[in-house]
Design a protein that fits this description.
Helices cover 32% and strands 32% of the residues. With 225 residues, the protein is of the alpha/beta class. It has one domain: Double Stranded RNA Binding Domain (2-Layer Sandwich). Strand 2 (45-58) and strand 3 form a beta hairpin. The longest helix is centred in the C-terminal third of the chain and has 22 residues, at 198-219.
């Protein structure tokens, strides 16, 4: 009897260990549908980019929480460098990532406010990642009970809200994009996982967020002196 229990436990651990997770993303919601234009002959402008990375487990977290440097997407800087190519008249720029500790750091807040005044424009981007605790917990529980034989989806909603301000702190543009990431967990998906990993799909969502938003700002000629 004891051997059967040990064997069952080992089998459970092996199945859990080899479980695969295939991810898929939705189309970009609220994407720009207008004419794409470039402004290569306009005067260069300086831009201050302020990024806020937020996550919330709805039903568990009372309010959205700012992600720390260990929680934020690892390749975000590379995504930003690629996306900024959408701007044809971007001159000098600076970046700033909001931290929850800023509330107790007046020096850092003063530096942020100073950079907003000394640049022609400020682009504030708030990227939110939300998932529901009940769906996540019950889905994970059901998947575990079934030894992951039955695939169970876990969804996460992503939203980016962007405001463009001039040096006088006047709002000159506001944008929003949405996307959904769905993860499927099952033993047999171990064969699918290498081609559809969650990390890659998240990167694709972030890239679509930034490139599409920057493309609309460029097309509308917002960044002009």
């Amino acid at each position: 009897m004891k051997d059967k229990i040990i064997t069952s436990a080992l089998l459970f651990m092996i199945i859990t260990f080899i479980v695969g997770c295939a991810s898929s993303k939705s189309d970009l919601g609220m994407a720009y549908k207008g004419e794409v234009k470039r402004n290569p002959n306009t005067e260069k402008v300086s831009v201050f980019f302020v990024f806020s990375h937020v996550r919330q487990m709805v039903g568990l977290d009372a309010i959205p929480k700012l992600e720390n440097k260990y929680q934020r997407l690892n390749g975000f800087d590379d995504i930003f460098l690629e996306a900024q190519r959408e701007f044809s008249n971007l001159g000098k720029y600076a970046t700033y990532v909001e931290e929850s500790s800023d509330v107790n750091n007046p020096v850092k807040r003063a530096e942020r406010d100073s950079l907003m005044k000394t640049h022609d424009y400020t682009i504030k981007m708030r990227i939110e990642a939300k998932k529901k605790f009940t769906n996540y917990f019950l889905g994970y529980l059901f998947s575990t009970i079934s030894l992951t034989v039955i695939p169970v989806p876990y969804s996460q909603e992503y939203t980016v809200k962007t405001d463009v301000l001039d040096s006088s702190n006047r709002l000159v543009g506001s944008y929003e994009r949405k996307a959904t990431l769905k993860n499927w967990s099952q033993v047999l998906l171990i064969f699918v996982y290498p081609f559809h990993p969650e990390f890659r799909k998240i990167e694709e969502i972030y890239m679509a967020f930034l490139k599409d938003t920057f493309r609309q700002i460029e097309s509308e000629g917002i960044l002009r002196k």
